[in-house]
Amino acid sequence: MPEANTRDRPITVSALAVLGAWLFVVLPSIYLPEGAFLSWLQRWQTLVGATVAMIAAALAYYNTTRSIKHARQIDSEKRARKHAALRAVLPLALSDITRYAAATVNELKEMIERCDREALPKNSATSALSDEAVPSKSLDVLAEFIEYSEAMDARLVETTLARIQIHQARLQSLLVSDRSAHGVVTRHQLESLVVDAAIIYAGASSFFAYARRAAEHPPIELVWDSVGAALHNMNVWADAYPRVHEDLSRREKASPSATEMSTYSPKAGAR
């Protein structure tokens, strides 16, 4: 119905213009005596001028609204194509993020094994935990995906992106503490970072079905079972790393969903 009304609008405006010309120009010129038309026109010039102005305003309004609607339609189509393009490359970006999470977990596991009681010996942190490990191009894809996803709930992508940035900042802080004369890296800090990485891994993995068009809508919640599965995928087993799984259980009891940022350890290393 709205499309039909839009198509009928120029016909209505044209009909009003023709009717105005017929009433105020053609009919008076036909039926009024010679010379009387100019007298009539002078007498009713205010009404004639107002009618012409109204018709001109209507035509201007129609042309303006049509231009605005056309521009909006073009912009909407461009955004839809951009979203489709981002969705097409999303599996590659998600794969990079899961590899990043798994790589950091592998390094953290090695450091946990090096711990002497409850602390990591000085200068034992691996240099692989650097900014070069961050899949920056994939993060840009996620950021663009959020920008062009106004028609869907992208909170899970937003929180995953935020977690990656926080996680990397904490890894850098760990390196600084390891190289500092007064810094201490605790075993608990390393174990907490493993769980943080598992949440990132699970958040990225949960989007694969939507990215590969196996699901019509993206997920909006991240369940704790997915985080546990992520630990298993990265070979972090409960018998080998019981305290990591205890950390996960504590977070699960504190919040029913792993989506909220409150489930992130507020300060790695703090008990």
- Give the biggest beta sheet: none
SSE order, one letter for each helix or strand: HHHHHHHHH
How far is it from the N-terminal to the C-terminal residue, by CA? 63 Å
Can you tell me the residue ranges where pLDDT is under 50 for at least 5 consecutive residues?
Answer: none
Strand content: under 5%
Number of domains: 2
Oligomeric state: single chain
Structural class per helix/strand content?
Answer: mainly alpha
Discrete helix count: 9
Topology, number of strands? 0
Overall mean pLDDT score? 82
Q: Provide the helix percentage.
A: over 70%
**What is the CA-atom radius of gyration, in angstroms?**
34 Å
Sum up the overall morphology in one term: rod-shaped
Characterise the protein shown here.
- With 271 residues, the protein is mainly alpha-helical.
- It folds into two domains: 2-75; 79-263, no CATH class.
- The chain contains nine helices and no strands.
- It has helices at residues 2-31, 36-43, 45-114, 136-147, 155-179, 187-205, 208-211, 224-233, 242-254.
- The longest helix has 70 residues, at 45-114.
